[in-house]
């Protein structure tokens, strides 16, 4: 057996004749000293990706260097594939033949997008039969989306009323298709579409009030339909319909929730929403479920209907924790948003997550004006705008906006991409002095009507790298409609009553 001394002698020989660890010189010393060593200096400049020209700071070399091919899980492989798919468009190496604005980004294709949405309201191919239970959503996405592009949607009023009339059930509410049960999501979409064209006279408000009473639950939440799941979507959809139609807040006498002692649609609702927030900070569809970006919007918007956001949101949610979670949903290097941690960027979350920041800012004690510039705030507005214009637009003649470059455009992603674009381009202000309830008249909740908006300045649009024709219209942060349509609904049912 070799002795310890023999081992030490061998180590000495290796260190004497072989490679040894040496301290590298500082960069300001003689540059030739580094090249005298064998191979490139650590960490190896040959391994560091070169900085691409004319890319924004959130896409710098250090960030791009995080994306490589040695992924080890299906999730990381999908994330890397999506990043690689988007990078040529984000860096403008491939502009897909789209016309460019004065800043080098693709223009917002207003007319092709409007034409695409208009076409989705016509005859559809056979595969759309699978959407039969979601017909009201097509009406809303396509009509509201056109209005966000400043298209006149009043032409759809008569046609829409006659289309949705058979979807209204005698017991109240709207189904997705002919003969289908009433559902909160379909009712919400129908009411919003009708609001967009000022056609709410077709709604049977008294029957609607009774039907919503059947889905109000003893714990404060709402089911999506009679006997269906209870989740945060039901709460937001129901309270939106109640507020726009100015239905009585008092529960109908036959509401099952009355057996638990509840008197109003708002009873225990805030507490139930608070139970949907998880330890991560995000909002789940129901208590103890997985968090999701769209549920965060539903929670924030519903609380902003119940009361002023700076009152209701901090009362029931951990705002700091939720803000951190929402900010973490903005993806790098794409700049768009994902709906859940470690998921892919998706243009629809431009609204579902991006629009949350307007409501969060109104809930903060610090004035929201602090967060109104393109370079400051809790989220990167310029990054979202860049993603939507470079990766979200369908090239060619067809128009429409898509989830990501590998997918096809549809009404859903077009509508919510435009809504998210509006949230990034404009300012929303909440009037903290406005009344939150019509105590002297109908008892209507007024908090959601206290919002006003103003267009971003020319300087701010320049910071976002957009021209005037790339700017969409002002979108209400709670109801996701044009402000003019919301105001018309407020006036129509100002007196209340059934």
From TrEMBL:
- InterPro entries given in the database record: FTB, PGGT1B-like, Prenyltrans, Terpenoid_cyclase/PrenylTrfase
Q: Name one GO molecular function term.
A: zinc ion binding
Cofactor remark from the record: Binds 1 zinc ion per subunit.
Write out the coiled-coil annotation as residue ranges. none
Tell me a GO cellular component: protein farnesyltransferase complex
Looking up CDD domains in the UniProt record yields: FTase (cd02893)
Q: Which cofactor does it need?
A: Zn(2+)
Query: What's its EC?
Result: 2.5.1.58
Q: Which reaction does it catalyse?
A: L-cysteinyl-[protein] + (2E,6E)-farnesyl diphosphate = S-(2E,6E)-farnesyl-L-cysteinyl-[protein] + diphosphate
Give the record's subunit note: Heterodimer of an alpha and a beta subunit.
State the function annotated in the UniProt record: Catalyzes the transfer of a farnesyl moiety from farnesyl diphosphate to a cysteine at the fourth position from the C-terminus of several proteins. The beta subunit is responsible for peptide-binding.
PANTHER family xref list: GERANYLGERANYL TRANSFERASE TYPE BETA SUBUNIT, PROTEIN FARNESYLTRANSFERASE SUBUNIT BETA
Can you say what this protein is called? Answer: Protein farnesyltransferase subunit beta
Taxonomic placement: Eukaryota, Fungi, Dikarya, Ascomycota, Pezizomycotina
């Amino acid at each position: 057996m070799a002795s310890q001394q023999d081992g030490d002698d061998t180590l000495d020989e290796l260190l004497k004749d072989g490679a040894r660890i040496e301290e590298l010189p500082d960069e300001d010393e003689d540059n030739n000293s580094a090249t005298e060593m064998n191979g490139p200096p650590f960490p190896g400049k040959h391994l560091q990706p070169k900085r691409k020209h004319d890319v924004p700071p959130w896409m710098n070399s250090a960030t791009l260097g995080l994306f490589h091919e040695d992924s080890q899980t299906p999730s990381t492989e999908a994330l890397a594939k999506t990043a690689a798919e988007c990078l040529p468009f984000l860096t403008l190496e491939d502009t897909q033949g789209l016309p460019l604005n004065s800043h080098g980004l693709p223009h917002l294709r207003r007319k092709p997008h409007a034409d695409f949405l208009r076409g989705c309201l016509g005859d559809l191919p056979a595969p759309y039969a699978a959407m039969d239970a979601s017909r009201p959503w097509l009406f809303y996405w396509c009509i509201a989306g056109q209005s966000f592009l400043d298209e006149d949607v009043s032409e759809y009023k008569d046609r829409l009323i006659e289309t949705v009339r058979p979807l209204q059930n005698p017991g109240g509410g709207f189904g997705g298709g002919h003969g289908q049960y009433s559902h909160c999501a379909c009712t919400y979409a129908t009411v919003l579409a009708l609001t967009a064209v000022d056609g709410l006279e077709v709604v049977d408000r008294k029957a609607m009030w009774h039907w919503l009473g059947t889905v109000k639950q003893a714990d404060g939440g709402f089911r999506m339909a009679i006997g269906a799941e209870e989740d945060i979507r039901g709460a937001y959809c129901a309270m939106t319909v109640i507020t726009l139609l100015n239905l009585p807040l008092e529960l109908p006498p036959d509401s099952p929730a009355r057996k638990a002692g509840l008197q109003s649609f708002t009873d225990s609702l805030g507490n139930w929403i608070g139970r949907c927030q998880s330890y991560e900070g995000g909002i789940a569809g129901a208590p103890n479920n997985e968090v999701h970006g769209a549920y965060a919007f539903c929670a924030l918007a519903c609380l902003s209907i119940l009361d002023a956001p700076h009152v209701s949101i901090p009362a029931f949610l951990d705002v700091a924790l939720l803000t951190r979670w929402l900010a973490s949903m903005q993806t790098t290097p794409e700049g768009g948003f994902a709906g859940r941690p470690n998921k892919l960027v998706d243009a629809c979350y431009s609204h579902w997550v991006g629009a949350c920041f307007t409501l969060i800012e109104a809930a903060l004690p610090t004035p929201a004006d602090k967060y109104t510039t393109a370079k400051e705030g809790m989220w990167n507005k310029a990054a979202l705008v860049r993603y939507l214009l470079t990766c979200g637009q369908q090239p060619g003649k067809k128009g429409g906006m898509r989830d990501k470059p590998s997918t096809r455009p549809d009404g859903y992603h077009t509508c919510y991409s435009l809504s998210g674009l509006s949230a990034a381009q404009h300012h929303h202000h909440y009037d903290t002095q406005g009344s939150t309830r019509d105590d002297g008249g109908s008892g209507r909740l007024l908090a959601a009507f206290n919002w006003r908006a103003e267009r971003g300045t020319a300087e701010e649009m320049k910071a976002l790298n957009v021209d005037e024709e790339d700017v969409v219209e002002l979108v209400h942060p709670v109801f996701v409609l044009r402000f003019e349509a919301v105001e018309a609904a407020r006036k129509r049912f100002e007196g209340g009553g059934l």
